[in-house]
């Protein structure tokens, strides 16, 4: 009878079943994977081996849980196989990953003890269920790793039962890998993979074994630091099938050849073929991007901006939404200036669309605007950030910096002071450093700041992260439905000094939400003319307005007008 092919098992799912002592369910599930393997070896082997690899961890807690499984169900071949996988992993962990000459004798002795116990469990599992491929996988793997002699004998034993198993034959291929570079050394491996093709009708996946000799050549070329030749060898191997070993080899060679686009493309494909790799702390994709970032940073620090842009573009050609590369390329293009700064700004804005809270990209936007002679545009961008997050200390600081660069010291000191109030210490030091530069008539701005800024600064801080959502809550709340508002005080707006002679007048229409005690809960800008000049100044003024206390809160629409004062 046909057997349903279940999807690849999740490592977390199986571990949780073990942790929760769902031993009968584990037995049933693992038996289903074995039956699927026997029905269709090509499609069923991968999920079966992955299921048991859930227990391939050098962890005493997992081992104790498996022992509880065996104690409750002593004739479970599945439990004994799981224990063999766990003990083999503990043996490998005891040996460590160093070369033999750098490994202590006691480490080898401990590994042998674990491997001996693992073999006992695997043999017991095979007595309970002889038609199980997973225990043979452990036996061949231990022989390959040097835990026991007779690797060829182990391989022949396993393949006599499952001659069409790709996993077993791949483990044998690993054991036949040449130790020294040279074409003569590959003959044994090539003979084995060619002989394996007699079983390809039963398991079409065995054709991919033909790529392993080229994979081994790629490994040797990689070790010899001949990375481009190594990539060519891995590419030949991949022509026989998309095996994880082939992809991983080409990823590592491509990284060192600085071909990060190819490395990232392969890393994405590897994670598609082997989703378990996404559970790792350093996934192939994440590690590739991080190495590409490092390389680009090296180029930028050396002033090689074109080279940095080229690498970033290569990565973005594979993953257009990689925000850190968009930010990095945007910064480099802005540094080159000229027409490139336009594309640089486009990259930075794309990064911010992906992650609006990416402060580095936001800072780079302002820096790019400054560098390319557009301080007014830099201020507009900074004000937009403050409008979105009025209680964000870093946003206030950056706005103050933008004002200061544009020569508007009074506005700068106000927002440095707000940043200081919000706990941003650098804002405090900047207030001290520029206070002496203020004209006497402007110095009292700092003294008025606590009363002028906001009657509810803490509440503003709490709602500033999602200002748009907060304003929508005010809009929907019946608490602010009343339109019978009686104003008792109005704070006049300040004409933004940074506008220079760009504009002489303007207006902003806004909706003000008042609490029941008459203080302002929020300000929503509805329209303005001209755009981008007076919105923040209007909102800051309206936040200081006061209405008469009432049983409930309310709302009111107001136009705030601006007109530049004549020179004295």
Considering the chains and any ligands shown, give keywords for the structure.
5 strands; mainly alpha; 3-stranded antiparallel sheet; two-stranded antiparallel sheet; 27 helices; 568 residues
Short synopsis of the structure:
This protein is mainly alpha-helical and 568 residues long.
How would you explain this protein's 3D organization?
Helices cover 62% and strands 6% of the residues. With 568 residues, the chain is mostly helical. The strands form two sheets. It has a three-stranded antiparallel beta sheet, with helices on both faces. The chain has a two-stranded antiparallel sheet with strand order 1-4. Strand 2 and strand 3 form a beta hairpin.
The whole-angstrom Rg is: 34 Å
How many helix segments?
27
Q: Which strands sit side by side, in order, in the main sheet?
A: 3-2-5
Kindly name the structural category: mainly alpha
- Note the overall shape: elongated
List the helices and strands and how they pair.
Layout: H1 11-19, H2 23-39, H3 41-53, H4 60-72, H5 77-95, H6 105-128, H7 133-144, H8 151-161, H9 166-175, H10 187-196, H11 212-223, H12 227-238, H13 244-256, H14 260-273, H15 284-301, H16 305-318, H17 323-336, H18 340-354, H19 359-371, H20 375-388, H21 393-405, H22 409-421, H23 425-435, H24 440-453, H25 457-463, H26 467-476, E1 487-489, E2 505-514, E3 520-529, H27 535-542, E4 546-547, E5 554-563
Antiparallel strand pairs: 1-4, 2-3, 2-5
